[in-house]
Amino acid sequence: MAPTVPSPAKSASPSQPSGKSEVADLKQQLRHLAGSRAPDADDQRRDVFKRVISCMTAGIDVSAAFGEMVLCSATSDVVLKKMCYLYVGVHARNHPDLALLTINFLQRDCRDQDPTIRGLALRSLCSLRVPNLVEYLVTPLATGLKDPNVYVRMIAAVGAAKLYHISATACLDADLPAALKALMLSDPDAQVVANCLHALQEIWTLEASNSEAAAREIETLYSKPVVFYFLNKIKEFSEWAQCLVLELASKFLPSDNNEIFDIMNLLEDRLQHANGAVVLATIKVFLHLTMSMTDVHQQVYERIKAPLLTLVGAGSPEQSYSVLCHLHLLVMRAPMLFSSDYKSFYCQFSDPSYVKKLKLEMLTAIANESNTYEIVTELCEYAGNVDVPIARESIRAVGKIALQQYDVNAIVDRLLQFLEMDKDYVTAETLVLVKDLLRKYPQWSHDCIAVVGNISSKNIQEPKGKAALIWMLGEYSQDMHDAPYILESLVENWEEEHSPEVRLHLLTAVMKCFFKRPPETQMALGATLAAGLSDTHQDVHDRALFYYRLLQYDPAVAECVVNPPKQAVSVFADTQSTEIKDRIFDEFNSLTVVYQKPSYMFTDKEHRGPFEYSEDLTNLTVGAEATENVISAQRYQENDNDLLLSTSDKEDNGTATNNGSSASSYNAPSDLIGPPLLSSQTPSETLLINPGGPTNSLQSNFSLDDLLGLGAPEAPAAPPAPALTLNSKPVLDPGTFQKKWGQLALSLSQECSLSLQGAASLMNPQSLIRHMQSNFIQCIASGGQPPNYKFFFYAQKDGATVFFLVECIINTASAKAQVKIKADDGTAADAFSALFQSALSKFGLS
Predict the structure, then answer these.
(1) Which residue from 352, 424, 370 is spatially nearest to 395, judged by alpha carbons?
(2) In the predicted model, is pLDDT for residue 198 greater than 90?
(3) Is 275 helix (H, G, I), strand (E, B) or coil?
(4) Rg (Cα) of the chain, in Å, rounded?
(5) Residues in Cβ contact with 328 at an 8 Å cutoff, skipping those fewer than 6 apart
(6) Nearest to 361 by CA among 576, 603, 569
(7) Model's pTM, two decimal places?
(8) Are 519 and 545 in contact (CB under 8 A)?
(9) E strands along 82-233, which residues?
(10) Do residues 311 and 319 lie in contact, with contact meaning Cβ atoms separated by under 8 Å?
(11) Is the Cα torsion angle 57, 60, 64, 65 positive or negative in sign?
(12) Is the pLDDT of residue 633 over 70?
């Protein structure tokens, strides 16, 4: 048999490098071309360099050719220089030992006659990011800042910021910030000025926590001469630089109204700019400057409405969405101002789904008595949309409008018509909304129940829709003739229902129906409790057991618990607190508005620019920690319970966390614990139910007597508080501060005022921290950005171990401060409050 002839190997495609053999071939060609002086040598080098970059882009390690690439860089061809610098910049980070080979030729190129090569070389030199090579960066940067060419000065300004991130000491020792400041105020080119401003902001912001000089420089940067210098030149800047200057202007605190109007007149034409980022940055300046001027602030809303609506329809879907997010934020704050423009938010056929969803939210927000009919008519058209998520959102929007209007006749009729569309998702969403409507408008029960009673539970597949139907069957079982029998059929199919939510609603609905129609529901109730007690889901089992024991104790008590008289719901809870909404508004023109959450919720702590920490707060977890249930720092950070941002929320939640889990804080009333329940428990379990014993009972009886006015002894009048002296050097570590903050009760909560000079002086947290330290009040954490700042202070009583803890939230626009004080000795809280307010009122006066 003849031997098989091997097939020839396929040659590698030029666009698909083959690996090691390709790299070896490239090295050999580069070595051959390194000393070549042939007329076409540069063209051959270009071809080889392109193959090297292609290999690098494909993920092949071409670092072996580093030396040959450096040898071939000795050319005046700008294209070859660019490709070589790209190669060097990529491999220098991964191979710091090889980066040393590039220093000589990069420094030589920094002195080249061609300014383009000088700039490219300087940029590549600063992009090496190798700490061992910092000494070689300082001289080229200092020379570049004085270069006669604009391009080189632009590169040098950005390179100074890069050097600071590599080695802050080297940057400061070379006095590069001072050179940047001088260049910023004197250079005739607008882009050089913008780059200097950006670099200085970055350097001084990071350095302010360690240096008082840097903090003073930031204050100078936000001063009137500097801000107006930039604003007068704003038309010369590029769009990116204009946004930078406008962000600077938004942090400026004018001393009087004339300065506010001067700035607004300078920036008036920026509202007609074609770039959306410039328009949004200008709007942020207008809004922040007029926060304390109610009438002018409202006029600003009217003025910015037209530019924003123009941007929504003029740009790409992505830009439209971003602008709509900012519009939505403004609509939520002033819905009446946008109510006449509701047609601008109608969904277009070509709109992406994310834009349509946001428009539906805006239509819901601006609906009022004058436009409700038109908006609801438009939303009803969307209910039959082929895009199911948008159809769902449109139905929810109709329901939200119904919940916020007084005249809901037409809206309820429209909702009930949705139930006739014979679409599962439409029926499910409508049932949920009808349930909420009945909770707020019980008078519509007869009309709604007449339609809902014709719906078969077998035609509803979604758990939330089925749960809403079951709730109505239990709540209005006296008006629905077939309610007990429908519930009985659902109980018979208990095992086929896998949703715990539906089973929980079914338990409650059967209980309610039993108290309204006992003979027809008795058998169904027994079957329901038996199924619930044997259910594997813990919540279902516990609720069934709870209902069983209530009935075992007293059916009358069970009826009061399960089916008490109800009042109509006036307002449904908002998902976002006012503090969160205000925080989002403060971060206008940022991703915060797009994500609809403050930046601290989606950024790492080290990247939260506005926040500064006087000490490392990594291990702080606000709230008392039980010895056997300590929350780890990692879990704490994952939950984002940041000390600066969540202490008030936890305090408002009461003291449920003071002793471990919240469940252990609640005890069953003694009149609901019957003998069968108590007899089935061990002594240890009984002790857990009533850990206080007779003491708790005595205290509760005394409190009840006092409440009823039955002669409780009056407490003697408190003696006047003695003069308070503070320890000049208090010591309190962050862990102890946090533990005390969670354990101590609130002693005082009050609002106080700052002087106008103090509000104007508060450009960054450090200035107030230094002032309070001079009054023996120390800061453990601070943060915020104009106009809102947040501080945590502490002080110690002289000659005692009594500490005072303070949360202080300052709004510089209104010159007001919200102060909360907790103290080891509550009797001294008033005296300390007087000292704290005195120190705060003197800020900025000296």
Answers:
(1) 424
(2) yes
(3) coil
(4) 35
(5) 358, 361, 362, 365
(6) 576
(7) 0.64
(8) no
(9) none
(10) yes
(11) negative
(12) no
